[in-house]
Amino acid sequence: MYDKFYRLSALPFQLIPDAQFFFESTVHRQAMAYLSYGLCHAGGFIVITGEIGAGKTILVDHLLSALDYKKFVIGRIVTTRLARDDFLYLIASGFGIARETLAKGSLLQNIIDFIIAMQRIGRRPILILDEAQNLNFEALEELRMLSNVVFDKEFALQTLLLGQPQFRSILGNPSLEQLRQRITSAYHLGPLNEVETRAYIEHRLQQADWKGDPRLSDDCFSALYLHSGGLPRRINSLCSRLLLHGFLEELHTLTGRAVQKVAKDLRDENRVIAGHSDEGRPRGEAIRETNHSGVKAETLLDRALCRLTRSPNAGERTKKVLRIGGWIVPTTASLGILLLILPDSGSTRPTALITFPTLPVAYEPPPAPNLSLPRWPEEASSAPKGPSRAPLSVHSKPSHKGQRPGPPPHRPDPPRDAPPRGDSLPVGPDTSAQQGQPR
């Protein structure tokens, strides 16, 4: 794709380690010096550690490309997460030793015989183990036991261990003291600095017959170092995607802005691949959290699905309100009509059972209580005149507000059958009559 567009003879930023594109930076040059020193001192262990993508594998490939295979025999193991017995079978497979239907003791003896036989013909066996941080204690003990094999006053087997930084803490275990004493050289690969990052990119482009197309600006190199951290594998991944972006956009000058866009796309893809949400937590992590729909989400995947579900818009909310209103409005109207009918009927109790049309519930109101109370003398002035007048208290005075003075009215005697009251006297004039109220 982009190699033809930019007229490159090869893809310069492949993720597969290729010794042809090896760049001897400061850290890689020092690592090669430690490897050479360890190979000169036959036997024991050589330990190379570094971050993921720091260039450990291509470093070893570059070393092997410079070896004379007439003097060395190489056994390489990539998969190291194995049980104790399987690990011996894998070592035998790395050296091409027959292992079918062999017990562990017989297999171990065949490995030792092979190592001594290679030494006798002048070829030193070298065992290379990648991803050494995955080795368990039993496997490391098997390696230590194999390193005890001696031929002509020298250790017959030499082992090269490549691992990530945590392998150094594994080697620090007190139970591995004997293995640590067999380490002849060790080195930790660090990242490239900004200057070496630019030199690394230009070196790989030149190995692919780069003629200056595309042109990379100064801020492009700075952005590449910023987003890769100087780790070769990250640089390869970012530059490969950057050239693809330039091919799709038909760009012949790549700037820092293009690097920013490509780096953002890679981060988004890594989140999807790694199964992380926008909060940075791994998918599948159990949580107890209520989302906007009121449902408790058990995993972050469920949360992501809930967030993708669109919230109800205004039209849906209006339909929901109308559905509720279709039940409430008829009920409220029925109650209003009922309240209008009952006072006109002259009765506070309906004559029949009332059933609302929208509710399947029959309602029968309780019997109306008797609200008639005895009238006290103080209430006589405001109550309408009845067939008889109740006596007023001696302390009450008739109200003559707004009336013309006149002769005192006639005071009739109280009825004979009225019960005697010790604190009552004959009442004064009937104020209701003076105010013109009907009798």
What does this structure look like?
It is a single chain. The protein is of the alpha/beta class and 439 residues long. Among the domains are: 2-12 and 193-274, Helicase, Ruva Protein, domain 3; 26-189, Rossmann fold (3-Layer(aba) Sandwich), CATH 3.40.50. The protein has helices at residues 2-5, 26-40, 56-65, 84-94, 104-120, 137-146, 166-171, 177-180, 194-207, 218-228, 232-249, 256-274, 300-308, 314-344, 431-434, and strands at 44-50, 72-77, 124-129, 150-151, 154-155, 158-163, 183-189, 215-216, 253-254, 289-290, 296-297, 354-355, 362-363. The chain has a 5-stranded parallel beta sheet with strand order 2-3-6-1-7, with helices on both faces. It has a two-stranded antiparallel ribbon with strand order 4-5. Strand 10 (289-290) and strand 11 form a beta hairpin. Helix 10 (218-228) crosses helix 11, helix 10 (218-228) runs parallel beside helix 12 (256-274) and helix 11 (232-249) packs across helix 12. 22% of the residues are buried.
